[in-house]
Specification:
Elements lengths: L9 H8 L9 E3 L6 E3 L9 E2 L2 E2 L7
Antiparallel strand pairs: 1-2, 3-4
Length: 60
Amino acid sequence: MPHPKRKISKTRRDKRRTHDNLEFKQLFKDPKSGDISQFHRVNMETGMYRGVQVIDVKKK
């Protein structure tokens, strides 16, 4: 039976497996502003995260 000539390191194995579980980014529509953004991200236009103002945004 054939077998590997050298042991494959954990790093090399894991680098190869990184592409196995790629998925599309989860998006949602903000109920207040109507913008589409990713989960667990601050809305950079309004500075809001989960209904809380976390960044002071200067309006132009």
